[in-house]
Design a protein that fits this description.
Keywords: Cell outer membrane, Ion transport, Membrane, Porin, Signal, Transmembrane, Transmembrane beta strand, Transport
Distance between the termini: 33 Å
Helix content: under 10%
Number of helices: 2
Subcellular location: Cell outer membrane
Strand order of the largest sheet: 1-3-4-5-6-7-8-9-10-11-12-13-14-15-16-17
Largest sheet: 16 strands, antiparallel, barrel
Number of domains: 1
CATH superfamily: Porin
Subunit structure: Homotrimer.
Structural class: mainly beta
CATH topology: Porin
Mean pLDDT: 91
CATH architecture: Beta Barrel
Protein name: Porin domain-containing protein
InterPro entries: Gram-neg_bact_OMP (IPR050298), Gram_neg_porin_domain (IPR033900), Porin_dom_sf (IPR023614)
Length: 318
Amino acid sequence: MIKFTHSTILLTSISSLAFYSHTACATEYDVYGKAEVQIANTDKGIMRYADKGTQIEAPFSRIGIQGQHKLNEYLNVVFKYEVQVNGFEQDDTEEPFSARNTYLGLKGQFGELVVGRNDTRFKYSEGKVDNFNETQGDIAQVIAGQDRLGDTLTYTSKYWHNTQFSFTYAPKDDNKDNEAGFAATVIYGDRSLKNTSYYFSVSHVDSLNNINASRIAAAYKFEQLKLGALYQHSESTDGIKSGNGYVLSASYTLDKWVPKLQFAKDDSLLRQASDATQWTTGVDYVFDKQTTAYLLYTDLDLQESADNSVALGLKYKF
């Protein structure tokens, strides 16, 4: 007897969808993902994304399919279905997958408009400022607003003279605040620092996931050196909590080695119970565009406690 697991059904569905789309509908699509393993030792387990003691983890590993289908010379259907793969770990065999960006929409000369689960355009505005994204040193450890929300509408304009506008909207009935909420972002330059050596963004979020906040983010690349900075003022929608957050980051490419450093601080009490300061340092070894090994150390200081974590990891993107 053949036993069908959640994993088998999901992967079969993705493969079938990709095959059908390519052969029957002439849809352009990509199956992509990230496989990552990490050995980490964390002192107290106070910080997010890291349990106390020595753990083998698979942080934010994922698989997805994204693509578009041409309706006419003016309009395309676009889609993305992406899940986080938790099944690497022994404790997650019952729930091997969790939701990530999943949406359907339209794309044309007007830009792109999609409906579903997506990173808010406030989160999107960080660009590549975060040197330790999706690790214990992620800026979401202390900075509020790094949200991925379902039941949202996202509009992203085309670039015009290196400038792009984007917008997230959540209806009242689908928002945690029980109020209609939005996030709006204006970008100048390239988020990936590939087409331009600079990046600058201004963003505001109103009543999404219980916060109101404004943010300025910038990054600059000069030869092997990359610098990033972020300032944010945040407050809870009820006005009880408020404060400021800062991020400074730097990295330098030495052939295949990339040493990195990052500082983050926030006193809004929205992500931690007290003022929070985090220092993170590490080094990547880039085998190729798809494969990277890394070592990092991060230290989180709160008013009444502190935590630290050291991690050795390997990630492969496809």
